[in-house]
Amino acid sequence: MTTLPLPPLAPLLLLLLSLPLIFFLSPHHLLPQTLISITNPSDLDDHLLRRASLLSSSFTSPPPSAPPKIAFLFLTISPDLPFSPLWTLFFSSHSSLISIYIHSSIPSPHPPPPLPFSSSFNPRFIPSIPTSRGSPSLIAAVRRLLAAALLDDPLNAFFTLLSPHCIPLRPFPSFHSTLFSPSPPLSFIEILPPDPLFLYPRYIARGPPESTMLPEIPFSQFRVGSQFFTLSRRHALLVVRDRRLWRKFRLPCLPSSLDSCYPEEHYFPTLLSMMDPESCTNFTLMNVNWSDNVDGHPRLYSPEEVSPELVRTLRKSEDSNHEFMFARKFSPECLQPLMDIAQTVILKEE
Predict the structure, then answer these.
(1) Domain spans of the chain?
(2) CATH hierarchy code of domain 38-57+65-285
(3) If residue 103 lies in a helix (H) or strand (E), which one and from where to where?
(4) pTM, entire model
(5) Predicted confidence band at 257 (pLDDT cuts at 50, 70, 90)?
(6) pLDDT in tens, 54-92
(7) What are the Cα distances from residue 28, in Å, to 21, 122, 149, 238, 291?
(8) What is the pLDDT of residues 288-305, one digit of tens each?
(9) What span, in angstroms and rounded, lies between the C-alpha atoms of 12 and 98?
(10) Mind listing the UniProt keywords for this protein, alphabetically (predicted)?
């Protein structure tokens, strides 16, 4: 029996029909300097998270010409990073080892603002959705940043979340060595021991547990920790793939509980504590001074306080074998005194 040949247009038609499927299933394709404009915020998150969820959790060692990278995720409502000159010094000579992502406040279709870093670092703006304290919007922003960084570069092995008021306390090689020395890799995220009296008002901030947190998150597994952290690639994928806990934490807090509602301090510690506590250090590399807590904000350092002694003090940790690599919260006016001691103290190996 003779098989009839396909019409000449049939192969072309099949190829065209398969292109959307190929694009969707592709584990990695480069993002533009600013991600694609998507009007509906939930569509943006679903689009990024769905694609990132398809990526492999395994990270194979690349050749020496393509070493693994650290993705720096700046979570800010403004594209202006007051300490970008200091971060530029921190990144200098290490551009092949870093990726930079900025949660931009510029909504589409407006063009992105001028980049706060040299184009040699290839920083990327991530289209933002408005964020506010006491809401799950900050969690959504971090998940969006993680998904974008996972998709953008398969060499991103660690993901460090920073605020615009953060500064480095040590040179880049010290930070790089801290992350890549342990095997298997660890995530540096604070997960504090449970404190029932402190945690329960936060646990019920969304309403009765029976209709909000349970059964997925019993109180015995509810945790708190720092908002800023460094996650391994495996844990970054765990976050973007999560749906079960996110359905609970995305519920709005009660108006009467806003003083106890800090979802971003609970979602990530709770998720990782429940899923993979052995691969978490329970220590954040970010030094935050809560001794002068003002309206939920940590101590804000002023220019008069900046000194070599302050930097050396902030590096030390009394509760861990690790030392701090970053610190917050510094006022923008601290830039010049910090630059004055950058080469001699902050970025000097000791």
Answers:
(1) 38-57+65-285
(2) 3.90.550
(3) strand 98-103
(4) 0.85
(5) very high
(6) 887 655 555 667 899 999 999 987 767 899 999 999 999
(7) 14, 17, 11, 17, 44
(8) 998 887 777 899 999 999
(9) 41
(10) Glycoprotein, Glycosyltransferase, Membrane, Signal, Transferase
